[in-house]
Amino acid sequence: MKSQKSITKRFSKTKTGKILHRACGQDHFNSREKGKTTRGKRRDKVLSPAFQKALKKLF
């Protein structure tokens, strides 16, 4: 089964099987954010278990 290209561009799969996604709201208007929020957007976030179950079929 082929993996869906739209999914592989937006999400990445770790070696242990977790699915990561980019934090939302990184593109612009970041100067008004608090420092804590800006730092929180730098790393990729782990997807919730319910979404991981659905997306693992598409990888």
At a glance:
This protein has 59 residues and is of the alpha+beta class.
Gross morphology? elongated
Helix/sheet category:
alpha+beta
- Compressed to H and E, one letter per element, the order equals HEEHEH
**CATH topology (fold) name:** Factor Xa Inhibitor
Distance between the termini: 9 Å
Give me the CATH architecture, please: Irregular
Topology, pairings included?
Blueprint lengths: L4 H6 E3 L5 E3 L13 H6 L4 E2 L2 H7 L4
Antiparallel strand pairs: 1-2, 2-3
What does this structure look like?
With 59 residues, the chain is α+β, with helices and mostly antiparallel strands. The protein has one domain (5-55): Factor Xa Inhibitor, CATH 4.10.410.60. The chain is 32% helix and 14% strand. It contains three helices and three strands. A three-stranded antiparallel sheet has the order 1-2-3. A hairpin with a 5-residue loop joins strand 1 and strand 2 (19-21). The protein starts with a helix and ends with a helix.
Keywords:
three-stranded antiparallel sheet, Factor Xa Inhibitor, alpha+beta, elongated, 59 residues
